[in-house]
Specification:
Layout lengths: L1 E4 L10 H13 L3 E6 L8 E2 L5 E2 L4 E7 L13 H4 L12 H9 L8 H29 L5 E8 L11 E8 L10 H6 L2 H13 L6 E7 L12 H9 L6
Parallel strand pairs: 1-5, 7-8
Antiparallel strand pairs: 2-5, 2-6, 3-4, 6-7
Length: 243
């Protein structure tokens, strides 16, 4: 599989491993990596017995979108997260550095109730970023199918617990259930391409140890919806509840 910039600019790196490191760094900074099938690709159209693509080499075009770089935080419409907008971490900081900065307000001697209240704030910031990323998908790709990858983190139970990461692969196809869906859209969201993307990220160590794939046509947040943050978070980090 080959990944190339969608805008035709110079690749992030000449080697696949270098591209993988660069994309993983973008994910580490809370950004959204969006991929779509290149119509000029000699695409594989079948899977072998092990589920791996066979045939010609897949070529995908990638775009990096930044939820922090727009006013989308004011469009998510969640009053519980809106208050955190002015405190959202800089896009130049990684998720880990933003967490480390947030954690400085506590010590190992902090009361559990104080830590839990702090986690509420941390959770709100992440929900805010997640909803902004979904809004970006909805705005930028309202009629186009793409594969989007977003990195999330868990909410450590204790001050001494390390932060854990998980990657969500969103197979986005808003026209999937309509007669308007194009052949290119079907190619992008096909099992061959999606599994190829996941295998590529794993092969070049660009993904987190915990991953989750969801397929959706909307950004619906109701309970049970594919992109519902609460449901997605619990599945990704294998938790019975968020907090």
């Amino acid at each position: 599989m080959v990944l190339a910039p969608a805008d035709g600019s110079a690749a992030l790196h000449s080697e696949p491993s270098g591209v993988a490191r660069a994309l993983s760094k973008q994910l580490d900074h809370g950004k959204l990596v969006v991929l779509r099938h290149d119509p000029k690709s000699t695409a594989a159209t079948q899977l072998d017995a092990s589920g791996k693509p066979v045939g010609g080499s897949q070529r995908l075009l990638y775009t990096v979108l930044d939820p922090y770089a727009s006013d989308l935080f004011q469009l998510v419409g969640d009053t519980n997260t809106a208050s955190a907008a002015s405190e959202r971490p800089s896009a130049r900081r990684s998720l880990q550095k933003a967490y480390d900065e947030w954690r400085k307000q506590f010590t190992v001697a902090s009361a559990e109730s104080e830590w839990r209240r702090g986690l509420d704030e941390l959770a709100a910031r992440q929900v805010e970023r997640y909803l902004a990323a979904l809004t970006l998908l909805d705005v930028e790709y309202s009629e186009e199918a793409v594969i989007a990858v977003l990195r999330l983190h868990d909410l450590p139970e204790e001050y001494t617990s390390p932060l854990k990461y998980g990657d969500v692969t969103i197979v986005w196809s808003p026209l999937r259930d309509t007669a308007s869906i194009s052949f290119a859209a079907r190619q992008t969201t096909s099992s061959v391409v999606v599994k190829g993307v996941q295998a590529w990220f794993e092969q070049y160590r660009a993904s987190s140890s915990s991953t989750l794939r969801v397929e959706t046509t909307t950004t619906d947040q109701s309970e049970g919806a594919p992109t519902s943050f609460d449901d997605l978070f619990r599945k990704l980090f294998r938790r019975a509840r968020i907090l």
